[in-house]
């Protein structure tokens, strides 16, 4: 109501509330207002509201070191494939993507490359809960319980409320734009960007609570994506996501995660 553009207000507001240790109750309050206007559980926290923007900025500030220890090694591996035995995905793979064609036995090795990268990023994420900052866990805990209260008949909404932030708006965005999260010094080249985009899309899909059902697979326009995600139709992936979301939305005290960095709230 005060600012025409939420972007102008959100960052200083988040920094101020972080400084006074009032961010969690504030986010809970604006998220509750946001949920009043949410009619369907599958659209929860998908918009660009004050609540979602505040959580986005909080994750960028508080989760900077968390992203670094979780994703930087594998992002470096994707950006410097010559140091690994895999190499980048071949140009033939990208031409197939542009034509939206199905997999061919000729590109089986590139499918395995993508599977390797997705598997590695996914594995690093789901085992990283011990490194998740306590403040992020407290916010996710509030969002989870507000969502369950708003949609009491939907057992999945408490997980999608958290995954919509930590997977879709945090990890997936950092994978596709590592330079904006200080995981890389500059924008990657076009071919590497395409690889990172594919990995990001896969992480978004795997991070969505619930198994990769036939109906969800049929929603992909590209046949090759359906074929690719069939390799992830195992209960272990769903259970890994569920356990990770449980861990990062818990208020139980965690063991110290080792090296940490101070949060820089103001300059000058």
Automatic annotation (TrEMBL):
Keywords: GTPase activation. Pfam families: RasGAP. It comes from the Eukaryota. Gene3D superfamilies: GTPase Activation - p120gap, domain 1 (1.10.506.10). Residues 246-268 are annotated as: Disordered. SUPFAM superfamilies: GTPase activation domain, GAP. This is RASA2 protein. It comes from Emberiza fucata. The lineage of its organism: Eukaryota, Metazoa, Chordata, Craniata, Vertebrata.
